[in-house]
Amino acid sequence: MTAVSQPVPVDEPDPAITAREAAIERTGSGNLVYLWQPRNACFWVYVFGVAYGLWVLYGQINAAIRLYAPALTASAIIFAVYGMLFWWFTVRIDRYSRQPLRLVIAAFVWGGVAAAWGIALSGNSALLSIYQKLFGQAFQVAWGAGLTAPLFEELGKGAGVLLLVFLAPRVVRTAYDGFILGAFVGLGFEILEDISYGYNSANEQFGSDQLGTSLSTVGMRLLTGFSSHILYSALVGAGIVYLLGTVAQRRRAGFGTMLIVVAMLLHGVWDANAGISGGNGALLLPLLIGEILISLAVVIGLFHYTVRPERAAMRAVMAPEAEQGVITTEELDALSGGWKQRRAYRKAANSRAESRVRRHRLEAAHDLADQIAASAGAETDRVRFARAELVRLESA
Protein backbone atom coordinates (compact mmCIF):
# COMPACT_ATOMS: atom_id res chain seq x y z
CA MET A 1 0.00 0.00 0.00
CA THR A 2 1.45 3.38 -0.95
CA ALA A 3 0.73 6.79 0.47
CA VAL A 4 -1.39 9.14 -1.66
CA SER A 5 0.70 12.08 -2.78
CA GLN A 6 -0.68 15.50 -1.93
CA PRO A 7 -0.63 18.31 -4.51
CA VAL A 8 2.02 20.88 -3.86
CA PRO A 9 0.32 24.15 -2.82
CA VAL A 10 0.82 26.89 -5.32
CA ASP A 11 0.65 30.52 -4.26
CA GLU A 12 -2.26 32.31 -5.78
CA PRO A 13 -1.13 35.31 -7.85
CA ASP A 14 -1.83 38.62 -6.20
CA PRO A 15 -4.74 40.18 -8.16
CA ALA A 16 -3.29 43.66 -7.67
CA ILE A 17 0.08 42.62 -9.07
CA THR A 18 -1.61 40.87 -11.98
CA ALA A 19 -3.65 43.99 -12.72
CA ARG A 20 -0.48 46.11 -12.55
CA GLU A 21 1.36 43.89 -15.03
CA ALA A 22 -1.64 43.91 -17.38
CA ALA A 23 -1.87 47.71 -17.24
CA ILE A 24 1.84 48.13 -18.02
CA GLU A 25 1.65 45.67 -20.91
CA ARG A 26 -1.52 47.24 -22.31
CA THR A 27 -0.37 50.87 -22.29
CA GLY A 28 3.27 50.26 -23.19
CA SER A 29 4.26 52.66 -20.44
CA GLY A 30 7.99 52.59 -19.74
CA ASN A 31 8.92 51.00 -23.08
CA LEU A 32 11.96 52.46 -24.79
CA VAL A 33 11.89 54.15 -28.20
CA TYR A 34 14.57 53.79 -30.85
CA LEU A 35 13.98 56.14 -33.75
CA TRP A 36 17.00 54.91 -35.73
CA GLN A 37 15.26 52.20 -37.80
CA PRO A 38 16.88 52.10 -41.27
CA ARG A 39 14.89 48.97 -42.18
CA ASN A 40 11.59 50.70 -41.48
CA ALA A 41 10.17 52.65 -44.46
CA CYS A 42 8.48 55.08 -42.06
CA PHE A 43 11.90 56.11 -40.79
CA TRP A 44 13.02 57.19 -44.28
CA VAL A 45 9.72 58.97 -44.97
CA TYR A 46 10.24 60.90 -41.73
CA VAL A 47 13.85 61.73 -42.59
CA PHE A 48 12.97 62.82 -46.13
CA GLY A 49 10.07 64.96 -44.92
CA VAL A 50 12.19 66.77 -42.33
CA ALA A 51 15.14 67.18 -44.72
CA TYR A 52 12.93 68.66 -47.44
CA GLY A 53 11.25 70.96 -44.92
CA LEU A 54 14.64 72.15 -43.68
CA TRP A 55 15.73 72.88 -47.23
CA VAL A 56 12.62 75.00 -47.89
CA LEU A 57 12.93 76.71 -44.50
CA TYR A 58 16.58 77.56 -45.16
CA GLY A 59 15.60 79.20 -48.46
CA GLN A 60 12.99 81.32 -46.70
CA ILE A 61 15.21 82.41 -43.83
CA ASN A 62 18.22 83.02 -46.05
CA ALA A 63 16.19 85.47 -48.13
CA ALA A 64 14.47 87.16 -45.17
CA ILE A 65 17.35 87.61 -42.78
CA ARG A 66 19.25 89.89 -45.17
CA LEU A 67 16.42 92.46 -45.12
CA TYR A 68 14.41 91.83 -41.99
CA ALA A 69 16.83 90.50 -39.38
CA PRO A 70 15.40 92.63 -36.48
CA ALA A 71 11.81 91.49 -37.15
CA LEU A 72 12.85 87.87 -37.64
CA THR A 73 14.92 87.86 -34.44
CA ALA A 74 12.20 89.50 -32.34
CA SER A 75 9.54 87.08 -33.64
CA ALA A 76 11.80 84.08 -33.01
CA ILE A 77 12.55 85.10 -29.40
CA ILE A 78 8.94 85.90 -28.51
CA PHE A 79 7.55 82.70 -30.00
CA ALA A 80 10.34 80.62 -28.48
CA VAL A 81 9.17 81.76 -25.01
CA TYR A 82 5.54 81.23 -26.07
CA GLY A 83 6.41 77.74 -27.25
CA MET A 84 8.17 76.87 -24.00
CA LEU A 85 5.04 77.78 -22.03
CA PHE A 86 2.88 75.50 -24.14
CA TRP A 87 5.55 72.78 -24.03
CA TRP A 88 5.47 72.95 -20.20
CA PHE A 89 1.67 72.86 -20.17
CA THR A 90 1.47 69.85 -22.53
CA VAL A 91 4.07 67.95 -20.50
CA ARG A 92 2.07 68.69 -17.34
CA ILE A 93 -1.13 67.18 -18.71
CA ASP A 94 0.80 64.11 -19.90
CA ARG A 95 1.23 62.95 -16.31
CA TYR A 96 -0.07 59.38 -16.39
CA SER A 97 2.07 57.44 -18.89
CA ARG A 98 4.48 60.05 -20.14
CA GLN A 99 5.69 60.02 -23.71
CA PRO A 100 9.47 59.54 -24.07
CA LEU A 101 11.31 62.82 -24.68
CA ARG A 102 12.80 61.72 -28.00
CA LEU A 103 9.31 60.87 -29.31
CA VAL A 104 7.98 64.27 -28.23
CA ILE A 105 10.91 66.04 -29.90
CA ALA A 106 10.35 64.00 -33.08
CA ALA A 107 6.69 65.10 -33.10
CA PHE A 108 7.63 68.75 -32.58
CA VAL A 109 10.25 68.68 -35.33
CA TRP A 110 7.89 67.07 -37.82
CA GLY A 111 5.22 69.68 -37.13
CA GLY A 112 7.59 72.65 -37.27
CA VAL A 113 9.67 71.55 -40.25
CA ALA A 114 8.16 68.81 -42.41
CA ALA A 115 4.46 69.62 -42.02
CA ALA A 116 4.81 73.41 -42.11
CA TRP A 117 7.46 73.84 -44.80
CA GLY A 118 7.68 70.56 -46.64
CA ILE A 119 3.94 69.91 -47.05
CA ALA A 120 1.67 72.84 -46.15
CA LEU A 121 3.58 75.63 -47.89
CA SER A 122 3.78 73.83 -51.23
CA GLY A 123 0.25 72.41 -51.10
CA ASN A 124 -1.41 75.63 -49.95
CA SER A 125 0.36 77.74 -52.57
CA ALA A 126 -0.60 75.41 -55.41
CA LEU A 127 -4.27 75.09 -54.43
CA LEU A 128 -4.67 78.82 -53.75
CA SER A 129 -3.31 79.50 -57.22
CA ILE A 130 -5.92 77.13 -58.69
CA TYR A 131 -8.74 78.81 -56.75
CA GLN A 132 -7.66 82.22 -58.05
CA LYS A 133 -7.59 81.03 -61.63
CA LEU A 134 -10.95 79.29 -61.40
CA PHE A 135 -12.99 81.66 -59.22
CA GLY A 136 -11.13 84.98 -59.17
CA GLN A 137 -9.06 86.86 -56.65
CA ALA A 138 -11.97 87.99 -54.43
CA PHE A 139 -13.07 84.39 -53.86
CA GLN A 140 -9.52 83.29 -53.21
CA VAL A 141 -8.98 86.04 -50.60
CA ALA A 142 -12.28 85.36 -48.80
CA TRP A 143 -12.45 81.56 -48.92
CA GLY A 144 -9.12 80.29 -50.21
CA ALA A 145 -7.41 79.76 -46.83
CA GLY A 146 -10.49 78.07 -45.36
CA LEU A 147 -10.70 75.63 -48.26
CA THR A 148 -6.97 74.93 -48.45
CA ALA A 149 -5.26 74.94 -45.06
CA PRO A 150 -7.41 72.23 -43.40
CA LEU A 151 -6.44 69.79 -46.15
CA PHE A 152 -2.69 70.18 -46.35
CA GLU A 153 -2.00 71.35 -42.82
CA GLU A 154 -4.12 68.87 -40.87
CA LEU A 155 -3.20 65.94 -43.10
CA GLY A 156 0.46 67.02 -43.06
CA LYS A 157 0.51 67.19 -39.27
CA GLY A 158 -1.47 63.97 -38.99
CA ALA A 159 1.12 62.25 -41.17
CA GLY A 160 3.65 62.91 -38.41
CA VAL A 161 1.50 61.12 -35.81
CA LEU A 162 0.91 58.28 -38.26
CA LEU A 163 4.65 57.81 -38.82
CA LEU A 164 5.34 57.85 -35.07
CA VAL A 165 2.66 55.21 -34.47
CA PHE A 166 4.56 52.87 -36.82
CA LEU A 167 7.99 53.91 -35.54
CA ALA A 168 7.04 53.36 -31.89
CA PRO A 169 4.19 50.81 -31.80
CA ARG A 170 5.26 49.58 -28.34
CA VAL A 171 4.76 53.07 -26.91
CA VAL A 172 2.05 54.81 -28.93
CA ARG A 173 -0.88 52.58 -28.04
CA THR A 174 -3.76 54.66 -26.72
CA ALA A 175 -5.86 57.48 -28.11
CA TYR A 176 -4.42 59.67 -25.38
CA ASP A 177 -0.90 58.99 -26.72
CA GLY A 178 -2.10 60.20 -30.12
CA PHE A 179 -3.74 63.22 -28.47
CA ILE A 180 -0.48 64.25 -26.75
CA LEU A 181 1.77 63.61 -29.76
CA GLY A 182 -0.69 65.47 -31.99
CA ALA A 183 -0.53 68.44 -29.62
CA PHE A 184 3.27 68.50 -29.88
CA VAL A 185 3.13 68.26 -33.68
CA GLY A 186 0.70 71.18 -33.64
CA LEU A 187 2.92 73.14 -31.27
CA GLY A 188 5.89 72.81 -33.63
CA PHE A 189 3.74 73.88 -36.57
CA GLU A 190 2.28 76.79 -34.62
CA ILE A 191 5.62 78.22 -33.50
CA LEU A 192 7.32 78.05 -36.90
CA GLU A 193 4.25 79.38 -38.70
CA ASP A 194 3.90 82.27 -36.24
CA ILE A 195 7.54 83.24 -36.72
CA SER A 196 7.00 83.25 -40.48
CA TYR A 197 3.94 85.49 -40.10
CA GLY A 198 6.01 87.85 -37.99
CA TYR A 199 8.73 88.38 -40.56
CA ASN A 200 6.32 88.28 -43.53
CA SER A 201 4.52 91.33 -42.15
CA ALA A 202 7.84 93.15 -41.76
CA ASN A 203 7.83 94.21 -45.42
CA GLU A 204 4.60 96.20 -45.01
CA GLN A 205 5.08 99.95 -45.57
CA PHE A 206 8.14 98.97 -47.63
CA GLY A 207 9.88 97.78 -44.49
CA SER A 208 10.10 101.29 -43.02
CA ASP A 209 8.72 100.09 -39.65
CA GLN A 210 9.48 96.40 -39.76
CA LEU A 211 9.55 95.93 -35.98
CA GLY A 212 6.25 97.76 -35.46
CA THR A 213 4.33 95.90 -38.15
CA SER A 214 5.91 92.60 -37.19
CA LEU A 215 5.13 92.95 -33.48
CA SER A 216 1.53 93.88 -34.30
CA THR A 217 1.13 90.56 -36.11
CA VAL A 218 2.97 88.74 -33.34
CA GLY A 219 0.53 90.16 -30.77
CA MET A 220 -2.47 88.94 -32.73
CA ARG A 221 -0.98 85.46 -33.12
CA LEU A 222 -0.20 85.30 -29.40
CA LEU A 223 -3.84 86.06 -28.58
CA THR A 224 -5.36 83.54 -30.97
CA GLY A 225 -2.68 80.90 -31.53
CA PHE A 226 -3.53 78.79 -28.47
CA SER A 227 -6.86 77.79 -30.00
CA SER A 228 -5.68 76.68 -33.39
CA HIS A 229 -2.98 74.21 -34.48
CA ILE A 230 -2.32 72.64 -31.09
CA LEU A 231 -6.01 71.86 -30.56
CA TYR A 232 -6.69 70.73 -34.12
CA SER A 233 -3.67 68.42 -34.16
CA ALA A 234 -4.59 66.87 -30.79
CA LEU A 235 -7.96 65.92 -32.31
CA VAL A 236 -6.29 64.53 -35.43
CA GLY A 237 -3.70 62.59 -33.39
CA ALA A 238 -6.36 60.88 -31.28
CA GLY A 239 -8.43 60.28 -34.40
CA ILE A 240 -5.55 58.50 -36.14
CA VAL A 241 -5.10 56.07 -33.22
CA TYR A 242 -8.84 55.36 -33.16
CA LEU A 243 -8.79 54.91 -36.93
CA LEU A 244 -5.90 52.44 -36.87
CA GLY A 245 -6.57 50.61 -33.62
CA THR A 246 -3.80 49.18 -31.44
CA VAL A 247 -3.33 46.41 -28.90
CA ALA A 248 -4.59 48.85 -26.25
CA GLN A 249 -7.18 50.74 -28.28
CA ARG A 250 -10.04 49.04 -30.04
CA ARG A 251 -10.34 50.18 -33.64
CA ARG A 252 -13.14 52.72 -34.06
CA ALA A 253 -12.79 53.87 -37.63
CA GLY A 254 -15.97 55.95 -37.67
CA PHE A 255 -15.14 57.83 -34.49
CA GLY A 256 -11.53 58.38 -35.60
CA THR A 257 -12.61 59.71 -38.98
CA MET A 258 -15.14 62.00 -37.29
CA LEU A 259 -12.43 63.52 -35.07
CA ILE A 260 -10.22 64.23 -38.08
CA VAL A 261 -13.12 65.79 -39.99
CA VAL A 262 -14.12 67.91 -36.97
CA ALA A 263 -10.56 69.22 -36.70
CA MET A 264 -10.56 70.10 -40.39
CA LEU A 265 -13.96 71.81 -40.10
CA LEU A 266 -12.87 73.89 -37.10
CA HIS A 267 -9.71 74.87 -38.95
CA GLY A 268 -11.57 75.67 -42.15
CA VAL A 269 -14.16 77.86 -40.43
CA TRP A 270 -11.42 79.71 -38.53
CA ASP A 271 -9.50 80.47 -41.72
CA ALA A 272 -12.66 81.45 -43.62
CA ASN A 273 -13.80 84.12 -41.16
CA ALA A 274 -13.17 86.85 -43.71
CA GLY A 275 -15.64 85.23 -46.11
CA ILE A 276 -18.17 84.26 -43.41
CA SER A 277 -18.27 87.76 -41.91
CA GLY A 278 -18.42 89.36 -45.36
CA GLY A 279 -15.91 91.97 -44.21
CA ASN A 280 -18.18 93.07 -41.33
CA GLY A 281 -15.81 93.93 -38.50
CA ALA A 282 -18.60 93.96 -35.90
CA LEU A 283 -19.44 90.35 -36.78
CA LEU A 284 -15.85 89.16 -36.89
CA LEU A 285 -15.11 89.45 -33.16
CA PRO A 286 -18.15 87.41 -31.98
CA LEU A 287 -17.28 84.81 -34.63
CA LEU A 288 -13.73 84.52 -33.35
CA ILE A 289 -14.82 84.27 -29.72
CA GLY A 290 -17.49 81.69 -30.53
CA GLU A 291 -15.08 79.54 -32.54
CA ILE A 292 -12.45 79.67 -29.80
CA LEU A 293 -15.01 78.56 -27.19
CA ILE A 294 -16.27 75.73 -29.41
CA SER A 295 -12.73 74.53 -30.17
CA LEU A 296 -11.82 74.56 -26.48
CA ALA A 297 -15.03 72.70 -25.54
CA VAL A 298 -14.37 70.01 -28.14
CA VAL A 299 -10.75 69.43 -27.19
CA ILE A 300 -11.41 69.50 -23.43
CA GLY A 301 -14.22 66.97 -23.92
CA LEU A 302 -11.90 64.69 -25.91
CA PHE A 303 -9.16 65.08 -23.31
CA HIS A 304 -11.47 63.87 -20.52
CA TYR A 305 -12.71 61.02 -22.71
CA THR A 306 -9.29 59.73 -23.76
CA VAL A 307 -7.57 60.21 -20.41
CA ARG A 308 -9.87 57.83 -18.50
CA PRO A 309 -7.97 54.63 -19.47
CA GLU A 310 -4.69 56.36 -18.58
CA ARG A 311 -5.99 57.18 -15.10
CA ALA A 312 -7.26 53.63 -14.65
CA ALA A 313 -3.83 52.31 -15.67
CA MET A 314 -2.12 54.62 -13.15
CA ARG A 315 -4.43 53.32 -10.41
CA ALA A 316 -3.65 49.72 -11.38
CA VAL A 317 0.12 50.37 -11.34
CA MET A 318 0.13 52.09 -7.95
CA ALA A 319 -2.61 50.12 -6.14
CA PRO A 320 -0.09 47.53 -4.81
CA GLU A 321 1.95 50.40 -3.34
CA ALA A 322 -1.18 51.62 -1.50
CA GLU A 323 -1.80 48.10 -0.21
CA GLN A 324 1.76 47.96 1.12
CA GLY A 325 1.44 51.39 2.76
CA VAL A 326 4.04 53.10 0.55
CA ILE A 327 1.39 55.64 -0.42
CA THR A 328 -1.96 56.37 1.16
CA THR A 329 -5.36 55.75 -0.40
CA GLU A 330 -5.79 59.51 -0.57
CA GLU A 331 -2.55 59.77 -2.56
CA LEU A 332 -3.65 56.96 -4.87
CA ASP A 333 -6.85 58.90 -5.61
CA ALA A 334 -4.86 62.07 -6.30
CA LEU A 335 -2.38 60.24 -8.53
CA SER A 336 -5.06 58.62 -10.66
CA GLY A 337 -7.44 61.57 -10.56
CA GLY A 338 -7.67 64.96 -12.19
CA TRP A 339 -6.68 68.37 -10.98
CA LYS A 340 -9.62 68.49 -8.54
CA GLN A 341 -8.39 65.40 -6.70
CA ARG A 342 -4.82 66.70 -6.61
CA ARG A 343 -5.91 70.10 -5.34
CA ALA A 344 -8.12 68.50 -2.67
CA TYR A 345 -5.17 66.38 -1.55
CA ARG A 346 -2.91 69.41 -1.19
CA LYS A 347 -5.58 71.56 0.48
CA ALA A 348 -6.13 68.89 3.13
CA ALA A 349 -2.74 69.84 4.58
CA ASN A 350 -2.73 71.62 7.95
CA SER A 351 0.09 73.98 7.07
CA ARG A 352 1.95 75.41 4.13
CA ALA A 353 4.94 73.20 4.91
CA GLU A 354 2.76 70.09 4.89
CA SER A 355 1.19 71.21 1.60
CA ARG A 356 4.67 71.45 0.11
CA VAL A 357 5.55 67.99 1.36
CA ARG A 358 2.33 66.61 -0.13
CA ARG A 359 3.17 68.15 -3.51
CA HIS A 360 6.64 66.61 -3.42
CA ARG A 361 5.20 63.21 -2.44
CA LEU A 362 2.89 63.28 -5.45
CA GLU A 363 5.81 64.01 -7.75
CA ALA A 364 7.85 61.26 -6.09
CA ALA A 365 4.94 58.85 -6.50
CA HIS A 366 4.80 59.70 -10.21
CA ASP A 367 8.54 58.94 -10.42
CA LEU A 368 7.92 55.61 -8.69
CA ALA A 369 5.15 54.79 -11.18
CA ASP A 370 7.53 55.59 -14.06
CA GLN A 371 10.24 53.33 -12.62
CA ILE A 372 7.78 50.48 -12.00
CA ALA A 373 6.56 50.77 -15.61
CA ALA A 374 10.14 50.92 -16.95
CA SER A 375 11.01 47.70 -15.08
CA ALA A 376 7.73 46.02 -16.14
CA GLY A 377 6.81 45.62 -12.48
CA ALA A 378 10.11 44.06 -11.38
CA GLU A 379 11.99 45.12 -8.28
CA THR A 380 15.07 47.04 -9.42
CA ASP A 381 17.47 49.43 -7.73
CA ARG A 382 15.67 52.37 -9.38
CA VAL A 383 12.30 51.18 -8.06
CA ARG A 384 13.69 50.73 -4.56
CA PHE A 385 15.33 54.18 -4.71
CA ALA A 386 12.08 55.84 -5.85
CA ARG A 387 10.20 54.08 -3.05
CA ALA A 388 12.82 55.18 -0.52
CA GLU A 389 12.33 58.77 -1.63
CA LEU A 390 8.65 58.54 -0.70
CA VAL A 391 9.58 57.21 2.74
CA ARG A 392 12.12 60.01 3.18
CA LEU A 393 9.54 62.68 2.26
CA GLU A 394 7.05 61.18 4.72
CA SER A 395 9.50 61.69 7.57
CA ALA A 396 10.63 65.12 6.38
Produce the secondary structure layout.
Layout: H1 15-27, H2 41-93, H3 101-135, H4 137-167, H5 175-200, H6 210-224, H7 229-244, H8 253-271, H9 273-277, H10 281-323, H11 329-335, H12 339-347, H13 352-374, H14 381-394
Helix pairs in contact: 1-10, 2-3, 2-4, 2-5, 2-6, 3-4, 3-5, 4-5, 4-7, 4-8, 5-6, 5-7, 7-8, 7-10, 10-11, 11-12, 13-14
Q: Which overall shape is indicated by the principal axes computed on the Cα atoms?
A: elongated
Number of strands: 0
Taking the alpha carbons of the first and last residues, their distance comes to 66 Å
- Average pLDDT, to the nearest integer? 89
- Number of DSSP helices? 14
Summarize the entry for a quick read.
The chain has 396 residues and is an all-alpha fold. The chain contains 14 helices and no strands.
Could you explain how this protein is built, in words?
The chain has about 400 residues and is an all-alpha fold. It is built from 14 helices and no strands. It has helices spanning about 15-25, 40-95, 100-135, 135-165, 175-200, 210-225, 230-245, 255-270, 275, 280-325, 330-335, 340-345, 350-375, 380-395. Helix 2 packs across helix 4, helix 3 packs antiparallel against helix 4 (about 135-165) and helix 3 (about 100-135) packs across helix 5. The longest helix has about 55 residues, at about 40-95.
